Amino acid sequence: MKRYINKLLPLAYGGYFNVLAQFSEKTAAQKAFDLFSTPRKGRVLPSQADFLNRALSDKIYVNKLGVQTYHWQGSKETVLLLHGWESNAFRWRLLIEKLQEKDYNIIAFDAPGHGYSEGNKMNVLTYSKSAQQLIDLFNPSYMIGHSMGGLTTIYNQYLHPHSSIEKIVSLGAPAELSELMEHYQNLLRFNDKVLTGLDNYFFDNFNIRIHDFSTSKYAATFTKPGLIIHDEHDTIAPFSASERLHKSWKNSTLIKTTGLGHSLHQEHVNQQILEFLKV
Q: What CATH number does the domain located at 37-176+214-278 have?
C-alpha cells in the first residue's frame, strides 16, 4: 500500500499544479519550485553522528539560516567537499579518512535543509552561496562535489573564476537544468503551462532561463584542471552529462567507471581523486 501511495503522490502534485496554473501560472510555478527544492531526507542519522562529531564543528549563516560546517585539521592544502541531494557531509567519510592519511586540511558542510543545517529548502544558488562563504573563510585549493554538489561546484567556479580554487573534481553530476526539469515534469506529469511558469520563475527570481543553466556552457570558460568521474550506468545522472562537460572543459580528464553506480565512494574512485590532487 505504501508503495502504491508513493507512486500516486507525484501524480497528485502534478494534477494540482495543472489545475492551479489555469488560474495563476505564477502561483503554480512557485509551488512547483518549492516542491522541487524540498529534500525529503538527508538529515544526520544516529549511525552517522559519531563520525561527524569528531570534526571541529561550527556554523555559518546564509540567508539568515545556519549552515553546519565540519573541519578536520591538517597541514597540507585545504580541500572543500560538497555532497549531493538528500545527503550530508557523512557521505565523504571514506574519502575524508584517505585525505587525513595524507594530512590534508578538510572542510565539509551540510547543504541548507540537509544534515544539521537549518531550513527545509535547497537549490544550487543557495548551495553555491554557502560554498563561497567557506571559500572566503578557508581559501581552499581544491573543491570536490558529488551529484548536485558537483553541479554546484561547476556553477560556483563559473561565478568566481578568480577564487583560491586550483583544482576541481566533479563526481556523477548532472549538467543541464533543462534535463532536471524534464525529469521533474515527467515524474509529476504537469503540463507545459506549469513548465513555462517555472521558466519565468527562474528568470524573475534568479535572472536565468532554464535552458541557459548548463555546466557544459559554464566550463567552456575554465582553465583550471578538472577531474570528472562518472559511471556509465548511472541511473540518477546520465553519463552523457559528464561527456558534455568534459568536451567543453579543455583542461579536464574524464574517467568512466562501470558498475559503481551513482554514489562513487569506492576505494578506486578515492584513489583517483588523491592521485589527481597530488600531481
A: 3.40.50.1820
Domains of the chain by residue range:
37-176+214-278
Residue corresponding to grid cell 567507471? 257
Q: Is the separation of the CB atoms in 215 and 173 below 8 Å?
A: yes
Distance CA 279, CA 85 (A): 30
CB atoms within 10 A of CB 137: 12
Predicted model pTM: 0.94
pLDDT tens, residue by residue, 16-62? 999 999 999 999 999 999 999 999 999 999 999 999 999 999 999 99
Distance (Å, rounded) from C-alpha 74 to C-alpha 51? Answer: 17
